[in-house]
Amino acid sequence: MTSSTVTGNRASAPDGGTALSAGIHVAASGNLTLGSTTVRGNTATAPGGTAQGGGIGNAGGTLTAGQVNIGNNTASAPGGTAQGGGLFSTGTSTLNQSAVIANRATDGGGIFEAAGTVTLNNTAVRANTPNNCAPQASIPTCTG
């Protein structure tokens, strides 16, 4: 997908369920390449449950992104677990010359690497709440 904007989408799960991938979903066997794309203002919500990947959720596939802006996305789960406001990944995710800025979650406001590998090449990850990448030290070149 190139020269696109993915904005204002919602994934929700009531009563303790799981909300995954509000903006873009990469399936376990999927392969997605993004170029010159903006993923902004998407929200995954799961009160009392689990919300993962407000902007992008990679559920075990392969994501390659170049010149992609992932910003102002949210994973929210009051009374539950919210991970990866910008990107939640259990697969292989590579971000080249991209930006992950101003996303929100309980943990991994910018990026949460639950499994697999996240690689950042000349990619800015900053100003995410409460942290840029999680778990701590799981993603080389990502700080905070």
Question: Secondary structure elements and their pairing?
Answer:
Layout: E1 5-7, E2 10-12, E3 18-20, E4 24-26, E5 31-35, E6 38-40, E7 43-45, E8 50-52, E9 56-58, E10 62-66, E11 69-71, E12 74-76, E13 81-83, E14 87-89, E15 92-96, E16 99-101, E17 111-113, E18 117-121, E19 124-126, E20 133-134
Parallel strand pairs: 1-6, 2-7, 3-8, 4-9, 5-10, 6-11, 7-12, 8-13, 9-14, 10-15, 11-16, 14-17, 15-18, 16-19, 17-20
- What does the main sheet amount to? 5 strands, parallel
Can you give the mean pLDDT? Answer: 97
Structural class: mainly beta
Backbone shape: globular
Total count of helical runs of at least 4 residues: 0
The strand count comes to 20
What is the beta-strand fraction? over 45%
Please give the radius of gyration in angstroms: 13 Å
* Low-pLDDT residue intervals, each spanning 5 or more residues: none
Distance between the termini: 30 Å
Helix fraction, binned, reads under 10%
Placed side by side, the strands forming the largest sheet appear as: 1-6-11-16-19
* Helix-strand topology string: EEEEEEEEEEEEEEEEEEEE
Structural description of this entry:
The chain is an all-beta fold and 144 residues long. It has a domain at 31-127. It is built from no helices and 20 strands. The chain has strands at 5-7, 10-12, 18-20, 24-26, 31-35, 38-40, 43-45, 50-52, 56-58, 62-66, 69-71, 74-76, 81-83, 87-89, 92-96, 99-101, 111-113, 117-121, 124-126, 133-134. It is globular. The termini are far apart.
